[in-house]
Amino acid sequence: MANPGGNGATFDILGIGNAIVDVIAHADDRFLTDRGITKGGMTLIDADGATSLYGDMAPGIEMSGGSAANTIAGAASLGARAAYIGKVRNDQLGEVFAHDIRAIGVHYDTPLAETGPPTARCLILVTPDAQRSMNTFLGASQELGPDDVDAALVAAATITYLEGYLWDPVHAKAAFRKAMDIAHGAGRQVAMTLSDSFCVDRYRQEFRELVDHQIDILFANEDEIKSLYEVDDFDDALQAVRGKCDIVALTRSEKGSVILTGDEVHVIDAAPVAKVVDTTGAGDLFAAGFLYGITNGLGPAESAGIGGRAAAEVISHMGARPEIDLKTLL
Amino acid sequence: MANPGGNGATFDILGIGNAIVDVIAHADDRFLTDRGITKGGMTLIDADGATSLYGDMAPGIEMSGGSAANTIAGAASLGARAAYIGKVRNDQLGEVFAHDIRAIGVHYDTPLAETGPPTARCLILVTPDAQRSMNTFLGASQELGPDDVDAALVAAATITYLEGYLWDPVHAKAAFRKAMDIAHGAGRQVAMTLSDSFCVDRYRQEFRELVDHQIDILFANEDEIKSLYEVDDFDDALQAVRGKCDIVALTRSEKGSVILTGDEVHVIDAAPVAKVVDTTGAGDLFAAGFLYGITNGLGPAESAGIGGRAAAEVISHMGARPEIDLKTLL
Lengths: 330, 330
Known about the structure:
homodimer, 330 residues, alpha/beta, UDP-N-acetylmuramoyl-L-alanine:D-glutamate ligase, nine-stranded mixed β-sheet, five-stranded mixed β-sheet, 12 helices, 36% helix, globular
């Protein structure tokens, strides 16, 4: 296990994920049911599906998104030395993505796609209960491949953080595996989020193998970890995953989080939120705060507390990137 | 003067303006002073200036904007039959602009620019005092010309609403004049906002002539009307403009508004706002509510009350378009 701090790393955290711009609009429950959209989930859509759904949606706001990118942006806002790998096209939304992640202090130099589909977008419908339902057109993010994984960058990061969503684009899985191998070869750690329970459904066996053999720090919410082990009860899932990774961070929305490390189980309360506006990015920002803490030598409970406060900030407004300088949470 | 309601009009309000996508980010006062940006104003920038400023800005959110477009979007949200004319390019931000204005219920079919500069964007810096400082790259909105003014559409609207900002792009002035002539020829009314005190500085003589001879309903804030008549005192400006138009609606931020109609002076209090987050769009949404009222047969004081409530909604969050269905304000 790499030694956080003083380990010769140039970056605390490197994230690799689908580089996406979010288009966020309010919708009522009827809008979802009429279109067969799974509430709270992430559904993949093609270009025609995106055009059709966008045409029906209410006026929106555009903001940079992408799960691992949100985490890395949050970590940078907290003060981590952060880098990101993900693919956009040389179009206006790609420019927005690149600007936003660099402007928050993240090292980002993945080559732009010069041809092919446009920058990925996620059409996010926020219902009156503040739940978000995501519809993702992967676009240029599908062009991410092993060649985009800069070996020196991976070797220079204390933790490489990968999103389960990378199993969806064809070539990204190879990029994911390459990054894991480089990180471990350099004595670094690999963290992963299971991303979404439907994503776990699609890749359960592969994800179980990753968790068993490759992942040092695992992030999952309650639905995802239950899906991974096909159990109905959270405690059963917790027992199933216990001991599989150095650290397992399980998030439970308003019930807070549970962190498993070696023999220890830390139960952490959720941070208070005056009004939940949009839950998009809650898990991403928990991971941001947790990884910031871990890479700064804090213990799992304290790190989870920072994660909870970062998540509380992001669900208090529309969008999955922090609205404030997260250093004020420390 | 056209008779609101039962006048054979297909639309209550037609807006013509610079079609712009806003890029909104927080900034501190030092950021403005370091770059010589006039706080609270609208500064025109070229493509290089936009690239340079954007490169320095914090992460942003993208939302449709444009002064008259915001007004028309607000009026549509209130329930007005609304249409809009303004030029975007066939690019991603143009698609965003067209989607958002149609999605809120506005008739919009101005032909897209197929060549030339990209869709206009306004880089908006919101300082901790919630003041907004706008830096506009006019881009494709400069391509708006008289040919884009659909005579049948203008003749079919009870009120044609024009922004003073149209004096900035080269050809838009001719479009403005063409629309005024058609509207008056069809027995309709022409409304105009002076837009910005620096815009008034640039075109004072022409704006005075418009106000004297062409405008039926004039909107201006305190700084703009003082700039128009080059006086330091609001009451002097009020006396100077009195009687020049059928209706003069003067907005004074937290002091509310003053409406002049014939011999009457109506003083209306501002609507309460729990927390002012971003003042972008305050004047635009006041005009939306006021025009909605007037075209629905309400009196000037009641119409100004709706305008005040619409303005209060838009300054309670980031961005210049309503976040809620404004019908709930009625």
